[in-house]
UniProtKB/TrEMBL annotation:
Name of the protein: NOL11 protein
Molecular-function annotations in GO: RNA binding
Organism: Cnemophilus loriae (Loria's bird-of-paradise)
Domain Nucleolar protein 11 N-terminal: 1-291
GO cellular component: nucleolus
Pfam families: Nol11_C, NOL11_N
Domain Nucleolar protein 11 C-terminal residue range list: 366-677
InterPro entries (UniProt xref): NOL11, Nol11_C, NOL11_N
The keyword rRNA processing appears for this protein: yes
Length: 679
């Protein structure tokens, strides 16, 4: 989220429509989607084409899929029927019962009660609202009617299950929250006989959403814990324009704990997951961490000591902070504390820093104190800080440490603790998001080894930084790289060391290619000297540059965002990079398993993806450049040779499988000669 970096993107065909939210199966790490109401799709993160993913056409329209961490996915149909995903996949066309033919589902939620999943959904018919509680694994379904409210209707619902009791919270149009308690029951014979009689659920007023004449017109409601709820809506004060706000309420003491105005507007939807709020603010997704503390009267009326007002901060803008905005210890006056990411939130107060005892200093305060310390003192204190940091806050603390170092590097161009930074990156599990300025400083200092380490270890590097590293690696001279310490583990096992400007070559034809074969496959006549230079048999770059380029190949990227940057790569550098990719492609093809030896060596898929990217970005330029013509011709010839070879293998695949089957069936003998004719 911090880098605006999509990690995966899948599209349905033109004319198809996703008809319910996509969920993740926690047990299998698969995505589950439904398009056109009845078509179920299941795929994994590495799958690229959604059209080729698993497909099952169901017999009834799906309303929603709910995924539980320990209960598996539940599929709720528009008719009220519920199936676990496993049962549904056994017979996708199985008949689904219809309980609510004249009713429309308005809300649904899934929960775990012990080891059993519980699914709750509400329906509406002619102004009446009904509640269904279903336990699929027990084939248990109960229907209730919600007590009517004069001149007010439910706007949204939420629920939680505790001690075999469902607590349903209803936000009504009269700016009030009502509570309904539903005990989980077991089916009995008496209940089956009286199934036609619907029990009417009485509700109790839980909360009035008004403070001193200001009324909150709520649009979305979520439960935080047994004493706190969050409501997203518009605050309407007399004589003033309504303002959209995120509010936290204490239901035990009927008080507004805290609120934050959202001037850019919202979609009206609020999600809550693992102590994080998710909401659309303007055009950005805002993520807010919170923590629920034990409810107390002092907290409810705002009388806790050492209070500070929390702020709402979007992850999108979290790295545009001043030096003073390093993290400080955070106690909120509210029982529910809204926090941004742990590395940064509140502006520290310099006037109080000197009065705090050293052993009670927060990370932010300590770093502010060390802002002007000597280099030795700074690194000593930072090492101590990382060693003593508690496990839950370790990553955030290390991120603060790296940020403090990069800030000093910016202020003092002569300061650059290369070995210290390399040690942190090598020994700590960091990411780009935790230290967004680190790679920018390394690029400025031309620290190739640190950039290599970051590319190999950081999972979330923006495409702009990946391109900057690639351009830097390609532009730096081989002579300069000879004096730089670079990790060569990814190249030392497959790049031959040249001797007297000649490389030792071995003819390998395991995958059906030889330099002399298939000369008729390309119309372009290539001189022998050019062939030896461009055929991929000699590495076009030195060991150090090859190792750095391999680090780029390992970086995760999104093609849509990387392609515009690659188009800015100078033509000569693009040709050099393509020559190296071609060399790697030939080296991979020399092996039966198409795998290069060594540690963190690039895979055949990575090589092919980057070749396609580079050709997409520079194809017109390369076609026009004379020096690229020979390279493209050889690449074309090699790919065609590979295609023919694999095409021939496909032709005899059936015969080889049959031969393997016969070998298993045949009794072993001491000696035999057999002639097998392959037709």
């Amino acid at each position: 989220i911090s880098d605006q970096k999509p990690l995966g993107c899948w599209s349905v065909k033109h004319g198809q429509i996703l008809t319910c939210p996509v969920v993740c199966n926690f047990e299998t790490h698969e995505y589950i989607a439904v398009h056109d109401d009845k078509v179920l799709r299941i795929w994994k993160n590495e799958d690229i084409n959604l059209d080729k993913a698993f497909k099952a056409t169901l017999s009834a329209d799906v309303y929603r899929i709910h995924s539980l961490p320990h209960g598996g996915p539940l599929v709720l149909f528009r008719g009220g029927g519920v199936r676990t995903l496993d049962v549904l996949l056994e017979a996708p066309q199985q008949e689904i019962e219809n309980f609510i033919s004249d009713e429309v589902i308005r809300w649904s939620g899934a929960f775990m009660e012990g080891q059993q999943p519980v699914l709750i959904f509400t329906t509406e018919k002619d102004g009446d609202f009904f509640v269904y509680v279903q336990r699929p694994k027990l084939s248990c379904l109960h229907k209730y009617k919600l007590e009517q409210q004069e001149s007010a209707k439910p706007v949204c619902f939420t629920a939680h299950v505790t001690n075999r009791t469902v607590t349903l919270l209803c936000l009504y149009s009269n700016d009030s929250v009502y509570q309904v308690l539903i005990p989980l029951q077991e089916d009995t014979e008496e209940e089956e006989e009286e199934e036609e009689e619907e029990e009417v659920l009485s509700k109790s007023l839980l909360l009035n959403l008004s403070v001193s004449g200001t009324v909150l017109k709520g649009t979305s409601l979520v439960v935080l814990d047994k004493d706190h709820v969050a409501v997203l809506g518009s605050l309407a004060a007399p004589g003033k324009e309504p303002r959209e706000c995120l509010t936290i309420w204490n239901t035990k003491f009927q008080t507004l704990q805290t609120s934050k105005e959202l001037p850019l507007g919202t979609s009206g939807q609020l999600w809550c997951y693992e102590e994080k709020f998710f909401l659309i603010h303007g055009k950005v997704l805002t993520v807010i961490m919170y923590k629920c503390e034990t409810s107390s009267l002092a907290a409810a009326v705002g009388k806790l000591k050492d209070s500070q007002t929390p702020d709402v901060s979007s992850f999108v803008n979290w790295n545009t902070l001043e030096d003073e905005e390093l993290v400080v210890s955070f106690q909120s006056q509210e029982s529910v504390a809204l926090k941004a990411e742990s590395r940064m939130n509140l502006r520290s107060r310099r006037s109080t820093v000197a009065e705090v005892q050293p052993e009670t200093l927060s990370v932010g305060q300590l770093l502010l104190n060390l802002k002007d310390a000597s280099t030795y003192m700074l690194e000593t204190k930072l090492r101590q800080l990382m060693a003593k940091a508690p496990t839950p806050d370790l990553q955030a603390t290390i991120g603060c440490v790296v940020t403090a170092i990069t800030d000093r590097c910016k202020r003092n161009p002569k300061y650059y603790p290369q070995s210290f930074l390399q040690e942190i990156v090598e020994t700590r599990d960091l990411s780009y998001s935790l230290c967004p300025d680190l790679m920018a400083v390394a690029l400025e200092k031309k620290d190739m080894h640190l950039l290599q380490m970051c590319l190999e270890r950081f999972p979330d590097i923006p495409e702009e930084i990946i391109y900057a590293c690639l351009k830097t690696f390609l532009s730096i001279s081989e002579a300069h790289l000879q004096s730089i310490d670079v990790d060569l583990d990814s190249v030392i096992c497959y790049i031959d060391i040249e001797s007297d400007d000649k490389e030792f070559k071995t003819e390998i034809v395991e995958n059906g290619f030889r330099a002399e074969m298939d000369q008729d496959m390309c119309d372009t006549k290539i001189p022998k000297e050019s062939q030896s230079r461009s055929s991929g048999e000699s590495c076009p770059v030195g060991l150090q540059k090859a190792a750095l380029l391999n680090a780029v190949l390992h970086s995760a990227y999104t093609e849509t965002f990387l392609l515009p940057h690659l188009k800015n790569l100078p033509a000569q550098q693009a040709i050099l990079f393509l020559r190296y990719l071609y060399y790697l492609y030939v080296k991979c093809s020399e092996k039966v398993n198409t795998t290069l030896p060594g540690i963190r060596s690039p895979t055949i898929n990575q090589i092919m993806d980057w070749m396609c990217l580079l050709l997409d970005a520079h194809f017109t330029v390369m076609v026009m450049l004379p020096e690229a013509k020979e390279l493209l011709s050889n690449l074309h010839k090699f790919v065609r040779a590979q295609s023919r070879f694999y095409s021939e293998l496909n032709k005899i695949e059936g015969s080889l499988q049959e031969l393997q089957r016969l070998n298993h069936l045949r009794e072993s003998q001491m000696y035999s000669i057999e002639v097998l004719e392959i037709i």
